[in-house]
Amino acid sequence: MEPRSSPGKALALLLLVIGSVIFAFPFLWLVSTSLKPNEQATAMPPRWIPKAYSAPVGGERVPVVKDHEIRSPSVIVRLTDGPRRGETVLIGREDCVDGKARIPVAGRTVWMPAEHVKDVLPGWWYVVEKRAGLADLQIETSARWDVVPADQIEERIAPAWANYPEAIRYMDAARTASGVQETSRWPVFFVYLRNTLTVCVLGVVGTLFSCSLAAYSLSKIPWRGRGVLFAVTLATMMVPFPVLMVPLYGVFKTLGWIGTLKPLWVPAFLGSGFNIFLMRQFFLTIPKDLTEAARIDGCSELGIFLRVVLPLSRPVLAVVALFHFLFAWNDFMQPLLYLTRQDTFTLSLGLQFYQSQQGGTDWSHLMAASTMVVVPIIVLFFFTQKTFIKGIATTGLKG
């Protein structure tokens, strides 16, 4: 076969780059949003780079939130009479006539005595002094504001790294607000992390233990009916989980496991069709001469499995372990079904609980928490990708 031409290589490289950008886009947006102030997380048009702004308010330059751009000629007036005397208001220019301002009050407009403060031109920005209590632009009545020309607003790139510790702190606040008593001195995020790691690690151990034994039996030990049993094992892969939810819930309830982590990791010790299939196909690539020689030397089947097959099967063991770890880490449906107490929640369920406790979704902190959940998986795959690809590439190639 002739080597691919340079234009063909360039086109393939271009398609790969475009595909990589498309697949990386959601993660990049997740990280970008996690580093923004909350008012920028929902800004339209969307902004990729988090920024901080400062502008003159009340005669001094202070950090501000850019609320909105003025689109029509307006005016700032100060009310000189009535219950709102002394209040400064931004109104349209047509609403200020002969020392009076038309002000909306209780669903209707009322003319009030007012003095002119400043004319506002289209293109100016309404800015509010940035304070800790101004999340989501819920402006406090005591917050200072002004309308300034765009050239008076200074901006700089400023990632909001504080969103990450604040996300952890807000998880604790949401937990306390729900009436749950504190049972650990650790932040609740780390309680969720501990539960998730417990489920993942025990599930990986159970999967490797049960699936490797079953796959060895189906690939290396000749016995009557193993082909039929293997077909039945593959058939279990076609049964969707929703079909099993109700019966499994009944079983676990009878065992008294509802509200504990056991339903999430104990079934891993009973094997799974896909992992057994994956391991069986890899075990078939191991030459029979090795196992037959060990058998002739008097080695038992368990000895052959432990001393010959497993040492040669590290790639597929790593693949199965990674697959199950990813599944358990990201699983949301089963924790939602079986876990009833917050001190047993996993990270996926904890994120959903955190979001449901917010009156309006606090996107910056939610994305920060989501980033902390996603990054460990990406780091894990980064360090295991060579073994992962090797295990996938050699599975099913019978030697």
What does this structure look like?
The chain is α+β, with helices and mostly antiparallel strands and 399 residues long. The chain folds into 3 domains: 6-34; 40-157, no CATH class; 168-394, MetI-like (MetI-like fold). It is built from 14 helices and 10 strands. It has helices at 6-34, 38-41, 163-177, 188-220, 226-235, 241-255, 262-265, 273-283, 288-296, 301-312, 314-330, 333-338, 347-357, 363-394, and strands at residues 51-57, 60-69, 74-79, 88-92, 96-97, 100-105, 108-120, 125-129, 145-148, 154-157. The strands form 2 sheets. Strands 9-8-2-1-10 form a 5-stranded antiparallel β-sheet, with no helix packed on it. A 5-stranded antiparallel β-sheet has the order 4-3-7-6-5, with no helix packed on it. Strand 6 and strand 7 form a beta hairpin. The two termini are 25 Å apart. The model has no long low-confidence stretch (mean pLDDT 84).
Brief descriptors of the model:
399 residues, alpha+beta, MetI-like fold, five-stranded antiparallel sheet, 52% helix
Outline the secondary-structure elements.
Blueprint: H1 6-34, H2 38-41, E1 51-57, E2 60-69, E3 74-79, E4 88-92, E5 96-97, E6 100-105, E7 108-120, E8 125-129, E9 145-148, E10 154-157, H3 163-177, H4 188-220, H5 226-235, H6 241-255, H7 262-265, H8 273-283, H9 288-296, H10 301-312, H11 314-330, H12 333-338, H13 347-357, H14 363-394
Antiparallel strand pairs: 1-2, 1-10, 2-8, 3-4, 3-7, 5-6, 6-7, 8-9
Helix pairs in contact: 1-14, 3-13, 3-14, 4-8, 4-11, 5-8, 9-10, 11-14, 13-14
